[in-house]
Amino acid sequence: MAENRPLYLGPRLRRLRRELGLTQQAMADDLDISPSYVALLERNQRPVTADMLLRLARTYRLDIAEIAGDEGEDYQRRVSAVLRDPIFADIDLPALEVADLATSFPGISEALLRLHQAYTREAQALAEQRAAGPMADENEPVREAQRFLAANRNYFHALDMRAEELAGEIEKAGGAVDWLGAKGVRVRFLPPDVLLDSLRRFDRHNQQLLIADTLDHASRAFQIATHIAHTALRTEIKQTIRAEAFSSRTTATLLLRALAGYAAAAIVMPYGRFARAADQRRYDIDALCALFGASFEQVAHRLTTLQRPGEERVGFFFIRVDEAGNVSKRLDGAGFPFAAHGGGCPLWSVHQVFRHPGEIMPQWLELPGGERFFSIARTVTGGAVGYGGARVLRAVALACAAEQAERLVYAAGVEPAKAPTTPIGVTCRLCQRAECTARSVPPIGRDVLADDYRRAAQPYTFAES
């Protein structure tokens, strides 16, 4: 006879509550129980009864299997694999104790797994530091996600086509709010403090999409479209992600967010209409913002995706950096050589626009290998809205091949072959321009000469190869 064991779902229940953006009090109200009982359930001090399981599934419209699926076996397998690490070789770890840990204390199991993952990642980074240089410090899941997007030229055909169909349905319904209303979802705009400082939260229990009322029109529209992408296009997004094998769940999570944003942009700016408007307006971003009710950064994002077979437009590379030079986003729709690591050259105007907020700065660029590009850069703002709110200033840049620049309004009247170019590098470690006065570190593979007899204008002088 199968053993009837109590069902403890503390960590999973806590994670569900946080994903829904609920306090313990709010969840207690939804389930008609006391907040203290929710706290006991989350601390695994009370088992989840069959009645409570049904309440959770009914209230938040979830599959019971999704809530009550046995994580114990998965934790036991993963913890067992971790404990086979040679660092634990001299410790007696009976299989029964490992099983008890995974079943009864999933929170501690998860903590152990995260610690071991961090330990492994740092050990690998230290081992590769000499060969990889500064690039070893980059967040690996982020780089893996960026490589996936770049390999697809930031265009996902099935997703884009379905989003364009949805955009047509939404337009016929009178807009996204009315379209959601027909699906039984009410859209409300509320103060951020009511939303627990969220910009968007979906209240499954009451079928309400809650949006921060401090967002501007473009941001509101994009958040609503993002919710539609996460629900109506969930199958297409997950199929796209499942087509590849990734090294960590974090990579898949990052891509889920990225592809939802991609789909949201495709809903707000449907491919056909947007591509035609881009051609007609000669890629004037401000004009496209006005036409589609989108922000500068949203339009810049969308321009990198115009690679539908047979309907390709100008191929763009997109980058976003903060004032410290940290790259927070890269999108490559053209297969550019600086897609993986580029953006660190201080001679590129994307680092200079902070001195001219809101102004668009065009620039012709040339890489060490002779490849020539045209770029535009401008600052964008984000963060809190209202007096006293912390605002974040970032810079974004779009770059295209020099031969395509004549299609852009920003390069009007300039012949690409005769345009004065700024020599830049992908990154100092990979740039062999010996005469660069803006260099921060020597390039890989070059010997630095002493300056006891001569001090050159550039930071380093190198021996002849």
UniProtKB/TrEMBL annotation:
<keyword id="KW-0238">DNA-binding</keyword>
<dbReference type="GO" id="GO:0003700">
    <property type="term" value="F:DNA-binding transcription factor activity"/>
</dbReference>
<dbReference type="InterPro" id="IPR010982">
    <property type="entry name" value="Lambda_DNA-bd_dom_sf"/>
</dbReference>
<dbReference type="InterPro" id="IPR010359">
    <property type="entry name" value="IrrE_HExxH"/>
</dbReference>
<dbReference type="InterPro" id="IPR026281">
    <property type="entry name" value="HTH_RamB"/>
</dbReference>
<keyword id="KW-0804">Transcription</keyword>
<dbReference type="Pfam" id="PF09856">
    <property type="entry name" value="ScfRs"/>
</dbReference>
<comment type="similarity">
    <text>Belongs to the short-chain fatty acyl-CoA assimilation regulator (ScfR) family.</text>
</comment>
<keyword id="KW-0805">Transcription regulation</keyword>
<dbReference type="GO" id="GO:0005829">
    <property type="term" value="C:cytosol"/>
</dbReference>
<protein>
    <submittedName>
        <fullName>XRE family transcriptional regulator</fullName>
    </submittedName>
</protein>
<dbReference type="InterPro" id="IPR001387">
    <property type="entry name" value="Cro/C1-type_HTH"/>
</dbReference>
<dbReference type="InterPro" id="IPR018653">
    <property type="entry name" value="ScfR_C"/>
</dbReference>
<feature type="domain" description="HTH cro/C1-type">
    <location>
        <begin position="13"/>
        <end position="67"/>
    </location>
</feature>
<dbReference type="Pfam" id="PF01381">
    <property type="entry name" value="HTH_3"/>
</dbReference>
<dbReference type="Pfam" id="PF06114">
    <property type="entry name" value="Peptidase_M78"/>
</dbReference>
<dbReference type="InterPro" id="IPR050807">
    <property type="entry name" value="TransReg_Diox_bact_type"/>
</dbReference>
<dbReference type="GO" id="GO:0003677">
    <property type="term" value="F:DNA binding"/>
</dbReference>
